[in-house]
Automatic annotation (TrEMBL):
Name of the gene this protein is made from: Rrp36
InterPro entries xref list: RRP36
Entries under Pfam families matching the protein: RRP36
Primary site of residence: nucleus
Phylogenetic lineage: Eukaryota, Metazoa, Chordata, Craniata, Vertebrata
Recorded coiled-coil stretches: 52-139
GO CC annotation: 90S preribosome; nucleolus
Biological role: Component of the 90S pre-ribosome involved in the maturation of rRNAs. Required for early cleavages of the pre-RNAs in the 40S ribosomal subunit maturation pathway.
Bias-annotated ranges (Basic residues): 147-167
Any single biological process term in GO: maturation of SSU-rRNA from tricistronic rRNA transcript (SSU-rRNA, 5.8S rRNA, LSU-rRNA)
Entry keywords, A to Z: Coiled coil, Nucleus, Ribonucleoprotein, Ribosome biogenesis, rRNA processing
Location(s) in or outside the cell: Nucleus, Nucleolus
Region (Disordered): 141-167
Protein's recorded name: rRNA biogenesis protein RRP36
Assembly behavior: Associates with 90S and pre-40S pre-ribosomal particles.
Length: 167
């Protein structure tokens, strides 16, 4: 900046050199980065699945060798998190495939000249639940699942009932 005398009054309209402000952008929300399409994302980064699998095996080996209880607990938590992420990813993939199959069916019906019919959220949920029950029945875990559900509901009902102390 230009040095000015302190004895002279500062002019009302002084010339200021403008500095161009950096425009910060977040690629997650910016249109320049393109549109997010989960199918393309999964195809592009499918190599990560094999790396994750190797890491999981490595953690399992470390868990077997480990003697320190604190370290063992941390490794167990890490392993649990990895398996949960894997299961969530599989669930997401199944959901995506189901939606794609529904879209294909709608396209086929539209080609035949029929009016498209879109399922409500509640209908989708019912179909999902029916599929879950069928899967549990196939694996033979339906009874244990229903027992757990009954127990959970019984506990909820018990909580809702007025306690004996208030009577």
């Amino acid at each position: 900046p230009l040095e000015m005398s302190a004895k002279k009054p500062v002019p009302f309209l002084r010339q200021v050199v403008s500095v161009r402000k950096k425009v910060l952008r977040d690629p997650r929300f910016d249109d320049l980065s393109g549109e997010y399409k989960p199918e393309i994302f999964m195809k592009t980064y499918s190599f990560l699945d094999s790396i994750k699998e190797q890491e999981k095996e490595m953690v399992q080996k470390q868990l077997k060798k480990c003697r320190n209880m604190e370290q063992k607990e941390k490794l167990q938590q890490l392993l649990n998190r990895m398996t949960q992420q894997e299961q969530a990813q599989k669930k997401q993939q199944k959901l995506r495939e189901r939606e794609l199959s529904l879209k294909r069916q709608q396209r086929e019906l539209a080609k035949q000249g029929k009016k498209p019919f879109f399922l409500k959220k509640s209908e989708k949920r019912k179909l999902e639940l029916a599929e879950k029950y069928a899967e549990l029945k196939r694996s033979g875990k339906l009874e244990s699942f229903l027992n757990k559900k009954r127990k959970r509901n019984a506990i909820k009902d018990k909580r809702r009932l007025p306690s004996q102390k208030n009577l």
